[in-house]
TrEMBL record:
<protein>
    <recommendedName>
        <fullName>Phosphoribosyl-ATP pyrophosphatase</fullName>
        <ecNumber>3.6.1.31</ecNumber>
    </recommendedName>
</protein>
<dbReference type="GO" id="GO:0004636">
    <property type="term" value="F:phosphoribosyl-ATP diphosphatase activity"/>
</dbReference>
<keyword id="KW-0028">Amino-acid biosynthesis</keyword>
<comment type="pathway">
    <text>Amino-acid biosynthesis; L-histidine biosynthesis; L-histidine from 5-phospho-alpha-D-ribose 1-diphosphate: step 2/9.</text>
</comment>
<keyword id="KW-0963">Cytoplasm</keyword>
<comment type="similarity">
    <text>Belongs to the PRA-PH family.</text>
</comment>
<keyword id="KW-0067">ATP-binding</keyword>
<dbReference type="Pfam" id="PF01503">
    <property type="entry name" value="PRA-PH"/>
</dbReference>
<dbReference type="InterPro" id="IPR008179">
    <property type="entry name" value="HisE"/>
</dbReference>
<keyword id="KW-0378">Hydrolase</keyword>
<dbReference type="GO" id="GO:0000105">
    <property type="term" value="P:L-histidine biosynthetic process"/>
</dbReference>
<dbReference type="InterPro" id="IPR021130">
    <property type="entry name" value="PRib-ATP_PPHydrolase-like"/>
</dbReference>
<keyword id="KW-0368">Histidine biosynthesis</keyword>
<dbReference type="GO" id="GO:0005524">
    <property type="term" value="F:ATP binding"/>
</dbReference>
<dbReference type="GO" id="GO:0005737">
    <property type="term" value="C:cytoplasm"/>
</dbReference>
<keyword id="KW-0547">Nucleotide-binding</keyword>
Length: 102
């Protein structure tokens, strides 16, 4: 999990950096909608890899998807810690139980 938290920090530090030298800064400069679009594209590529049963491609595309998810969160100034806190809140609550309680 540390690698994701470290990556989120790196991405935050790229806010306002030069888009010519940072892919993250380039994405962020294009706005949250573009960041969301890129996240969606990468997620679809992961879905395709899973459907094809291409294990190596699935790993690669999931890494791309996680990176672009963090960029999307940064684009809306949502700290990654908030996502982790939400996951923590859910831990120990069965998805089946949660759905039944709705
Ligand atoms: N994890 C990543 C990471 N994963 C993917 N990418 C980039 O995301 C881009 C994905 O682009 P696409 O596949 O969409 O290719 P494209 O050429 O844009 O394609 P089109 O959609 O434009 O046709 C590539 O340029 C990848 O290099 C990443 N860029 C950066 N990181 C991390 O972010 C850190 C900071 O990077 P910079 O902001 O570039 O300094 C790096 O040290 C890495 O740890």
């Amino acid at each position: 999990m540390n690698i994701l938290a470290d990556l989120a920090q790196t991405i935050d530090a790229r806010k306002g950096a030069n888009p010519d030298s940072s892919w993250t800064a380039k994405l962020l400069s294009r706005g949250p909608e573009k960041c969301a679009e890129k996240f969606g594209e990468e997620a679809i590529e992961a879905i395709i890899a899973c459907t094809k049963g291409d294990r190596d491609e699935l790993v690669y595309e999931c890494a791309d998807t996680l990176y672009h998810m963090l960029v999307m969160l940064a684009a809306r100034d949502v700290p990654f810690d908030e996502v982790l806190a939400e996951l923590k809140r859910r831990s120990g609550i069965s998805g089946i139980e949660e759905k039944a309680a709705r």
